[in-house]
Fold these 2 entries.
Entry 1:
Amino acid sequence: MSYTIEGRTGTWEIVVGLEVHAQIISHSKLFSGASTTFGGAPNTQVSLVDAAFPGMLPVINHECVAQAVRTGVGLNAQINLFSRFDRKNYFYADLPQGYQISQFEHPIVGKGVVSIELQNGDVREIGITRLHIEQDAGKLLHDQDPTKSFVDLNRSGVALMEIVSEPDIREPEEAGAYLRKLRQILRYLGTCDGNMEEGSMRADVNVSVRKAGEPFRTRCEIKNVNSIRFVMQAIEVEAARQVEIWENGGEVDQETRLFDPGRGETRTMRSKEDAHDYRYFPDPDLLPLVLEQAWVDELAANLPELPDAKRARFQAEYGIAFYDAGVLVAEQAVAEYYEAVARGRDGKLAATWVMGDLFAALNRTSNSIETSPVSAAALGKMLDLIADKTINGKIAKEVFEDMVETGESPDAIVEKKGLRQVTDTGAIDAAITAVLEKHPDKLAEYRSGKDKLFGFFVGQVMKETKGKANPAMVNEALKAKLDA
Amino acid sequence: MLTGLTLTQARAGLTTRKFSARELAQAHLDAIGRLNTALNAYITVLPEADVLASADAADARYAAGTQGIMDGLPIGVKDLFCTKGVRTTAASKMLADFVPPYESTVTANLLNAGAVFLGKTNLDEFAMGSANINSAFGPTTNPWKRKGDEATALVPGGSSGGSSAAVAAGMALAATGTDTGGSIRQPAAYCGIVGLKPTYGRCSRWGTIAFASSLDQAGPMTRSVADAGLMLEAMAGFDAKDSTSSNRAVPEFHKAVGKSVKGLRVGIPAEYRAPGLPADVVAMWEQGIAWLKAAGCEVVDVSLPHTRYGLTTYYIIAPAECSSNLARYDGIRFGMRKDAPTLDGVYEATRAAGFGQEVRNRILMGTYVLSAGYYDAYYLKAQKVRTLIKRDFETAFETVDVLLTPTAPSAAFAQGENMDDPVQMYLNDIFTVPASMAGVPALSVPVGLNDAGLPLGLQVIGKHFDEETVLSVGGALEAAAGFTHVPSVHAGAGA
């Protein structure tokens, strides 16, 4: 265990489990036909069902169910053919029904596993306890009026997946890696956009500490942390707080806490005594959700290739390193771009260009892969020019920068600027002769045994040909001339 | 007398142009005008102009020959069905000014069939009660009086007491009701009319204000068994907006009435012979058995061993669901709001002022039985018992086609009676609750008067989605009983 807290009484390890709320990508809400688009004017995407008018009834949106099943398959998890919706009862102004429809006893997805990779290259498996479907609540706006709070129900009834991990996480870094991996899988699947800033992915963090070999001690739940960095920070400060309490002879209370990133501390939100009694019971308005295995199989068969599989395939198919493959599959759009460049070409060279010059150019020009000024086809074409010796690697860099700036095709740039590689032996020989004539002293030194000057002559010849000479041909001809 | 017709008779009269839908509607509006002050059967009467306009539209359809099966028939609508643009109160202060911007599926179906709505009938608040005394708009009075005692006001039963009183008194040809544990059948019996609780899932619950979702079912309250079949045809049908609605085809129910019942097996559940059951009720039951035998039915004894747990189980499950269903009445988006400095304060003030005592009782009971530490002992156990009750019926229906029981353990009682002990009040539902728990169809048919001159009803319970056999047997009872009595308060009386 690499992350531990050294206390006065000994070494502590941390135990973390995450509950991630991921908003399901769907056109309409979980139980109503209202739109789910983010950012609509307040209360413009609210049906009578979402506002819980008298006599309104929920009807399950099957696309949301399909999305949950896809996610379950993507998390290598058990899909439960029988699941059920329960009501979680509590009063709050953002909860029109006075209950949230959720799945308590019988979730749609059972145990699964996600493998994560740490900075040092270690790979760990984090268990998934369950995934269930539930409704999101509305939003309270406290800043619109000095004395009143306003309610926006646009989000009320939007479908969420709650993805609960086992308490398998032992380091803040693992929590970060888990969340990134989960987000990556959800994005690949197209089941959640994973945007934590807009709140479409949020995490509740369960933290406890213990000494090695002990059973679990009391945990605290830190609610609604909205960035990966904050999750990692919250774990650190909460674990330190708990160690402090235990070491002072105190007792950690099971409670719900909030993380304040400004102050770098967690605060009590709700103590155990104030904990709600949610009075879960099966929602009598909805029938149990019974899935056909054939339907689940069909969804599974039509899933996109997931990051781990894609990474392995990239390694095998394109001969690239494990690390590089990981970088290239991190985002689906990058993976697609890379593959369009690499297919039928030198995969390693393609990886070098994508991860090197392309990423640098995107960074410099504040573009994403989707808005790249150089298309995958154009970059591929440029690699073709290298392969067929039209240009060499050095000139290619010049061509690429021109492509970034002008968006022109590599062929056009090579033609326009006359960058075609010199493979004419006569021209190369002439350049060598000119260089040797210009540097008789160096030639003498070389011939008296200073072999290292070979590189100097290569450089000078390249300079003479404005970099366009084929480097291999220059080497060969120069060697012949010098050793003559 | 236009106000004394059955739906079937009125439809015939309209078809042959013996009278117009406008005349029919006007006669009912007049009757309501004369009687509603005394009976308080309607919470809201629709504006005369609107009612007559609907009737005129129906007349036009008759003239064009495009009439629907309920066309031009003036009916009352229990004020639990949301009606677009018409105040819908659930007899609660909470919704005293609530005007829904939508029409419930059942009332929309009736409108599509051409029905003319007269108004919204009184009920126990949120359908919780058996005497229609728990209405924020005052109790409904039963149009029937004890022989020689015109002064004592009797309850019409509940919760659909406004509907049953209106139909009995000639203030509507028929009315919609909802039944959660007997709320159609018991008031039908107390007012001498027919009430049918269909199979759970037969009528959509969409737009009907929920009491207990797993039990609530809409149904017709009429003057004849054939009328109940006719009206159910119009009300029923699959609704994609209600996940518990059935997609079975809707038969022509009214045609089941008059079909021979010869050879049908009628079960008499031993457990319904409760000790202390009044002699007049027992006698009426025996009479019913004799009539069905005479009609060729084979009468057999059956056992529904878990009947005795029905009422207790019901009073766990129904309040549990109601405690959750009524959480939406929080003063935030619609209905009553009592302002307070904090959010919890708004909830407390609003719900204390908006809900009557019985509703509050049931919310408390329901909250209790779902609470941590009590859930297993109450709610979960009740669900298990409910399964056993269902199984009782399934087992019985392996050997019989229908069951015959009394609808209620007594005739209508006086307002003020049974009021200090809620449990005594709950006992009114003892014969109706089991069928609700099992979700099977059940019909109450008026079959005679007791010594006090008050109507008594018998209940025919059938298999899931077999309303047709229930209606056939009900029709046989109706034919044998020849119940033609009318209450002392009636549109026809003294007119």
Entry 2:
Amino acid sequence: MTCIIIDDEPIAHHIIEDYAKELKDLTILKSFYNAVEAISFLNTNKVDFIFLDIKMPKLKGLDFIKMLTHPPAIIITSAYEEYALEGFELSVTDYLLKPFSFERFLKAYQKVAQLKTNISNTNVKVDAEDQSIFIKGDKEIHQVNLNNIIYLESYGGYVKVHLNTQKPIVVHQSLKFFETNLNTNFIRTHRSYIINKTYIKSIKGNLIKLQDNDLPIGKLYKIHINKLLEN
Amino acid sequence: MMTLLIIVLIINIQADFRINLFLFIFLFFGFVFLFQWLYLKKKTSQLQAMQIQSELDLLKSQIDPHFYFNTLNNLYGLAKRKSDQTPEAILKLSQVMRYVIYKGKESKVSLEEEIDYLENYIELQQLRTNKDIKIDFKKNIFINHVEIAPLLLIIPLENAFKHGVDTVLNDAYIDIILIADESKIQLEITNNFEIDSANEFTGIGLENLKKRLQLIYKDQHELKVTKNNGIYKFDLLIHQ
């Protein structure tokens, strides 16, 4: 697995680097002292997860997460307890309170590794060209063209894939998985929704109008909507 | 005739008695109210003193706990790599803690003790970063012994790190000038900060400092804070 470190304190880097040496299949691709530099790196490189500090100059860790359209798994490392709630709302995988032991570090690492194996199980498979997706639902494997997906809805431990061609398919997978693996045409707009940009008719206040229904915009995801206008 | 005399006498006696009774009741309640008033007055001033003390204690306790956890994390990292810096850093941290825990309870400490504390704090903060921070601490102390309320001067210094140094990517600086003479103690702190992050500045530390100054050095201090083009300036004057 690959990861990067974002923390403004050098000693915090040392601790993680030393721990990572103990794990054979973990590679730190790069370490950053601020989140701004990490953004451009993430635009051109794929990483499995990030060790992320919260209090940093220029761009704070939680704002950094909100800015990523397809965030990898995130392990927060902080001396601050009080951001844990917001962190988990942004679906971070784990939250390490500094200073943390190797055992605690290992636990966080295993959580990420577990997440990755869940993803690689065969319920959902995105094809190489990003054109279609194989979804296992109702004991049947459906091939769905990405253009036909209107939006995805979180549904307990499942995700409901709403299509314009047939009735929704329910698949045992996390919304997070789709968020990380679908192309940039899909944006997370709410804790429970990912929307295909093509189907947006209009945006008014905190509502997105699609073909047949209106979906709310989550407070934390507003930044994704604002980005639509920037490009 | 006789009966008339007796009646008049009785009325007279009654009137006399009535006046005495009124006087007695009046004086009795007068004393009751007076004592009650004195008692209440004493009680309120006691309460007020207690309130001021607990307010001061509360305001004092608002020192940022994250500093300790961040420092401990750095100590942990240093110790793990068996760095030669470890023992020195542990001593610095214990001095800081001793000062906060014990000296912080006293109403006045010597200015030197507060200065030692500020210097230890600065050195521990520098341990945290690999940035080139320019910290210039000028001390112009012209008298041998001067006292100050503890943990006052740390607040603006803490802010200079938290809202200044920690927000700037490069070329962070803090200039500190401390002057003490017969008539005053003056602290001036100038630091740069990232303008974008200024909105995060809630100023709780500064508000608490103002309240504490009001309680300890009422009509005896001047505080001026200016924020201009990414430069923050704190100026406190305490008249002796």
